[in-house]
Every structure is written in C-alpha cells, then in structure tokens.
C-alpha cells in the first residue's frame, strides 16, 4: 500500500523542575496534549484518533491506562490505541500514529507518551522485584565495557557525553534535570553505579509527557501556508530481535543496523553523516552515544568515540547529538522515545529555541528498549524533498 505524506504540526511537552506530586496522571498527559493542540491551532474535536504509549503498567499501578485516560485526552467515542515496546515505546507510538495517517485511515492523529514514576516503583519494575536486582544500568554495563574493550575508547569519553548533554539541557526549558555547575571533574568524581557508568552518566527517573499531532499532506501544506513550518516524516521503521540467541551482538544489535538501513533507504539517504544535520538518540547511559553512532552507521567501527572526543556531537559540532539534553536529562520512560521524535521535529521546524541547530533541514530520531533489542527510528525534514539540488 502506498503511503500518503504525513506531517507533524503540533508538539507539546510537560515542564518539570521536580516531580509533579501536585498533578494527577490525567492532568499530566492532558497538559502535554493541550500544548500540542495549541501549537497545531486545533482543538479536541479536530483529532480523529489517539495513540498512547508507556512503559509497563506497574510503573504507576494503573492497568489499561488507555481506558483510564480516554476522557483526559478527548478520546471518548474515538479510536484509542495502546503501544508497548519497552523503552522504545515513545518513538514507536509516534510511528503507529503516523501510520494511521499515511494509510489514509485518519486525517489527524495524536500520539501521547508518558510516565509518572513518582507514583510507581521504577526500580522494582525494572528488576522484576527480585532482591539485589541490578536494574537497567547493570544489564547494559557489560555491553558498554565490551564496546570500550573492542574500540580502545578512553575512559573519559562517557563523562564527555554526560557533560555535553547536561550543558545542552541548560538551554532546554523542558529538561527535567539541570545541573548548573556540571564539569568533567564533577562527573568523574560522582559515585560509580555500574562500571563503567557513574551516577552523573546515567539518566534520571522523571514524571512527564509528550504529545505530537500528525496530519496528512493537505494539513501540512495548510500549516505551512499559515506560517507554521511542519515537520515532514520522510521515513520510519521498527525492528526487534530476541534478547538471547547464538551469535547475538548486543553492542551492535542487528535489529538496530537493519532499522537504520531501512529508514535511510526510505529517505534516500546514502551518507547519513553528511545528509543528516542532527540527531536525537536514546542515550540513557552516556556510553550509548558512541555505540549508536557506530551501530546505526553514522560512524565507522571504532570511530564513534572519536566523534565525541573531537566535539563533533556538540551543539556547535559537525553532527550535533541530543541537542535537548537527551534521555540523560529527561526520562519519563514512556515518553522518552517520543521526545526524541518530537525534538528532531522541532529542529527541522526551527522551533528548538536556544538548543536549535542552525540550518537544520533533516534530523534523525531514535529509540531503543529492553535488552537493546527493540528499535524505532524516524527521519524528519523541513520539506518533502530536502535533498533536491
């Protein structure tokens, strides 16, 4: 089936300086949705369907939240879909919402990702409730150590990513965690959590939500005509693989390689380093920035950490990564992947404010989940043909 062009015309995020004990779960998601509607110059009645994504229900203790939140999201009497693919769920949620527009099923669809971890037990959920569980950081630490061993990456690369992302977060009004006096020395002196990951190289636990409104080509063109730059979705892809099988390489998972190859082919990208202007990558632990640069063929083998060391991935570098501060600065798990999607779209819309990359026309959004086994990726641009000469 041929896909119709799809555009992003509305983006909304929640703003937190601390956990939102004073806001209900319904209020949390509605706040993001209302901001997205305002950005799109729409109201609740304009939305045809809602797609919602979050991490496991145990995190808030609310089963079937897609039913519980129907009224809060203006979805009474409308199709309401739930998506779950672990940490990658936010980006996958956006892709599923886009599919409903691309296939012509609906004209305007809202995607919402969220997590309210102050009302649940994230560590219990991540560790399955077993005593002395290592959690996500402990599960990924061997992969990061393996990357260091294979590539000869110096130990300072992880702290360099952490400093870069935390400095970027200071420019983002929606970042949940801000550390004003961040420095390489401060990161390196923070407690070791899961060797090689220190406390300040790991993501926070956040309360937050993100909403994105997708519309068809006519809706995108109408937004552009009114002076509101849309973000055109050039490509999207999802891939998964079992967490264990003979020969599996968790440092460079084949699902991630295939997912990237698919979005590049759809978008007509043959040289991602040159044709993509910036990227929002899912980096919950600092070493995953160089790992994903290589895992998605933006950098060659052993070259990802060198990009970090040279400053290529800084906001003013040749290939900026996580301009918003990334997952290291905001991690409402169910929304984190959708935030990567939304922040990439904000870049090509020229909407990112102080963390805007000058002249950004094409951006990559990426998320991964579970044991680095689920992947979702998108390419967004400021036009349907950004590579036209």
Which helices and strands occur, and which strands form pairs?
Blueprint: E1 6-13, H1 25-40, E2 49-53, H2 65-68, E3 80-83, H3 89-102, E4 108-116, H4 122-126, H5 135-151, H6 157-169, H7 184-189, E5 192-194, E6 197-198, E7 207-216, H8 217-225, E8 231-240, H9 254-267, H10 272-275, E9 278-280, H11 288-295, H12 304-310, H13 333-349, E10 362-369, E11 374-381
Parallel strand pairs: 2-3, 2-4, 9-10
Antiparallel strand pairs: 1-7, 1-8, 4-7, 5-6, 8-11, 10-11
Helix pairs in contact: 3-13, 11-12
Structural account:
This protein has 389 residues and is of the alpha/beta class. It has a domain at 6-122 and 205-225: Thiolase/Chalcone synthase (Peroxisomal Thiolase, Chain A, domain 1, 3-Layer(aba) Sandwich). Helix content is 34%, strand content 18%. It is built from 13 helices and 11 strands. It has helices spanning 25-40, 65-68, 89-102, 122-126, 135-151, 157-169, 184-189, 217-225, 254-267, 272-275, 288-295, 304-310, 333-349, and strands spanning 6-13, 49-53, 80-83, 108-116, 192-194, 197-198, 207-216, 231-240, 278-280, 362-369, 374-381. A 9-stranded mixed β-sheet has the order 3-2-4-7-1-8-11-10-9. Strand 2, helix 2 and strand 3 form a beta-alpha-beta unit. The radius of gyration is 19 Å and the shape is globular. It starts with 5 loop residues before the first strand and ends in an 8-residue tail after the last strand. The model has no long low-confidence stretch (mean pLDDT 93).
């Amino acid at each position: 089936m041929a896909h119709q062009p799809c555009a992003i015309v509305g983006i909304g995020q929640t703003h937190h300086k601390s956990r939102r004990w004073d806001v209900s779960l319904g209020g949390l998601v509605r706040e993001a949705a209302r901001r997205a509607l305002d950005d799109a110059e729409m109201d609740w009645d304009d939305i045809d369907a809602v797609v919602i994504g979050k991490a496991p229900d145990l995190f808030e203790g609310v089963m079937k939240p897609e039913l519980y939140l129907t009224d809060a999201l203006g979805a009474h009497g409308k199709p309401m879909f739930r998506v779950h693919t672990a940490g990658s769920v936010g980006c996958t949620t956006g892709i599923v919402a886009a599919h409903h527009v691309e296939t012509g099923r609906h004209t305007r669809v809202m995607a919402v990702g969220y997590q309210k971890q102050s009302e649940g037990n994230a560590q219990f959920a991540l560790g399955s409730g077993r005593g002395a569980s290592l959690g996500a950081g402990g599960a990924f630490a061997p992969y990061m150590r393996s990357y260091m061993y294979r590539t000869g990456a110096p130990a300072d690369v992880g702290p360099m990513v952490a400093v870069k992302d935390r400095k970027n977060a200071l420019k983002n009004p929606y970042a949940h965690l801000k550390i004003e006096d961040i420095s390489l020395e401060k990161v390196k002196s923070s407690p070791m959590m899961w060797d090689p990951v220190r406390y300040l190289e790991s993501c926070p636990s956040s309360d937050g939500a993100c909403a994105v409104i997708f519309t068809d080509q006519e809706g995108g063109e109408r937004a552009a005509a009114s002076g509101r730059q849309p973000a055109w979705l050039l490509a999207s892809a999802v891939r998964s693989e079992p967490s264990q099988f003979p020969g599996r390489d968790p440092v460079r998972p084949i699902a991630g390689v295939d997912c990237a190859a698919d979005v590049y082919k759809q978008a007509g990208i043959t040289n991602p380093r040159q044709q993509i202007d910036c990227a929002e990558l899912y980096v919950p632990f600092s070493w995953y920035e160089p790992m994903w640069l290589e895992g998605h063929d933006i950098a060659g083998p052993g070259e990802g950490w060198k990009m970090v060391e040279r400053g290529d991935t800084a906001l003013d570098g040749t290939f900026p990564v996580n301009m918003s501060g990334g997952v290291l600065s905001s991690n409402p798990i169910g929304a984190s992947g959708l935030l990567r999607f939304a922040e990439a779209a904000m870049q090509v819309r020229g909407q990112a404010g102080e963390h805007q990359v000058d002249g950004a026309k094409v951006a990559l959004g990426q998320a991964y989940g579970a044991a680095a086994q689920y992947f979702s990726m998108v390419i967004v641009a400021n036009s349907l043909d950004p590579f036209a000469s």
